[in-house]
Amino acid sequence: MFDQTIDPIDSCGCGDTGYLTTRTVPIDLAHGVGRIDKVPVYHCRSTDCQEFTLPPLVSRRLEDIAEEMEKVQATEAVYTWESHQTQSSEPLKRTNDQTHLQAFTLQFSGREYADAHVVLIVPGQAIFFQSRLEDTEYYVLLYEANTRIEGIWFSFLKFYYEEPEFTYEDFLEWSDEGHLKELGRIPLDEVEDTLIGEFGEC
């Protein structure tokens, strides 16, 4: 389910600490210069800085999107993790739940709360939080892809992880052993209020 992992913090193109965000990126195409919207990048948040860094996963995906754009002679596209299978004349501009989820999860990059902070984001799928009160206490919002309820929903879960460094790969293996405690299910429009209620405003 979670096949795309990007750390929330890395390096900006200017050399300072970069925080995961999204922006429009120009791209060279066989038929001219195009642009791709909502591309995940690392940026230092300085309004004067025009530099940024692309996560390796994103760089590889941009190459695929560029090929798709060239096939249909498009000059604009919206970043997605998967190709859209559609007969539309503008297949790459189609808005769907996955694009919405990516934008929603990425907005939590670097997010701080009174009692927790974001430690990892899996774009469009999950947001991981570490407690400020106890280092081994973690929480995760997991997108429920197969829910029968209308709208976008997340499971809110709590778990304890005692390894000194939290890694996504270890979490996947470890979570299969049934260590997650479900705290509830939350519709997308109630996520922010729920997190503030649970962790408090910073």
Task: Give a description of the structure.
The protein is 22% helix and 33% strand. The chain is an alpha+beta fold and 202 residues long. The protein folds into two domains: 9-95; 111-199, no CATH class. β3 (32-43), α1 (56-72) and β4 (76-78) form a beta-alpha-beta unit. The longest helix has 17 residues, at 56-72. The chain is globular.
What's the arrangement of secondary structure elements?
Blueprint: E1 9-11, E2 17-29, E3 32-43, H1 56-72, E4 76-78, H2 97-106, E5 116-122, E6 126-131, E7 137-143, E8 153-160, H3 168-175, E9 181-187, H4 191-199
Parallel strand pairs: 3-4
Antiparallel strand pairs: 1-2, 2-3, 5-6, 6-7, 7-8, 8-9
| End-to-end distance | 32 Å
- Beta-strand fraction estimate: 25-35%
Major sheet: arrangement of strands: 5-6-7-8-9
> How would you characterize the largest beta sheet?
5 strands, antiparallel
**For the CA atoms, what is the radius of gyration?**
18 Å
Summing up helix and strand content along with how strands pair, one would put the structural category as alpha+beta
Number of helices: 4
Instruction: Estimate the mean pLDDT confidence.
Output: 81
